[in-house]
Amino acid sequence: MLQALPVSQRQQHMACMKLGSKPEIFHREGHTWFPLISRSGLLEKLIQNFSNKDGSRCVLQLHELPSGAKAFELVAKFCYGVKIDLTSLNVVSLRCAAEYLQMNENYGERNLIAQTEVFLNEVFSIWVDSIKALGTCEALPHAEGLHVVSRCIDSLATKACAYPTLFGWSVSGCTNVQSPAGVLCWNGISTVMRPQSIRED
């Protein structure tokens, strides 16, 4: 199940997309690995290369997974059809995790790479969400390689050029006001205003 907020609501609130239809209760123990393996090219390869002739258990270590255990839990929920909410604050980490796990269309239709890409396009259409998504890229080096950073910046630059009035809108609750000390506060960013001299012709 895939649900997206109507356009009118997306303009007023942070974008949100729901994936999955099963109850949100998710048990980490006792599940078969099959849904995860069938959706992930990396996990499939790791399992195929594992040999347990000595009867040992298969233990996979994914130390390089972007965002670590937190992202993996969301990925697992996605694979099992458990409800998860995609937001501008988690979509970049999930996009990076999906790329690392090779969750492309070769391992199932509407896989996680495709789903996160669809939602990223929604995020890039909204000013506030683009800023939030860009902020999460700082802790995700993989985002640069996937061109998420450049796409965020491009979307913001396009909006700035097309709608210059957006610069008068408060993102973090601070409007364009000037303090007595000559500090201009724009969208939560303080800058010291330099005096400007006026020449008479």
Overview of the structural elements:
By secondary structure, this protein is an alpha+beta fold. Helices cover 42% and strands 10% of the residues. The chain has nine helices and six strands. The chain has a three-stranded antiparallel beta sheet with strand order 1-2-3. A three-stranded antiparallel beta sheet has the order 4-5-6, with no helix packed on it. A hairpin with a 2-residue loop joins β5 and β6 (189-192). α4 crosses α5, α5 packs antiparallel against α6 and α7 packs antiparallel against α9. The longest helix is centred in the last third of the chain and has 15 residues, at 148-162. The protein is elongated, with a radius of gyration of 22 Å. The relative contact order is 0.12.
State the total count of DSSP E strands.
6
Radius of gyration of CA atoms, rounded to a whole number = 22 Å
The side-by-side strand order for the widest beta sheet comes to 1-2-3
Beta-strand percentage range:
5-15%
The share of residues in helices is 40-55%
Low-pLDDT segments: 1-13, 24-32, 170-201
The run of helices and strands is: EHEHHHEHHHHHEEE
- Which structural category fits the helices and strands? alpha+beta
Mean pLDDT: 75
Please give the alpha-carbon distance between the first and last residues. 68 Å
Biggest sheet features: 3 strands, antiparallel
In DSSP terms (H or I, runs of 4 or more residues), the helix count works out at: 9
The best one-word shape is elongated
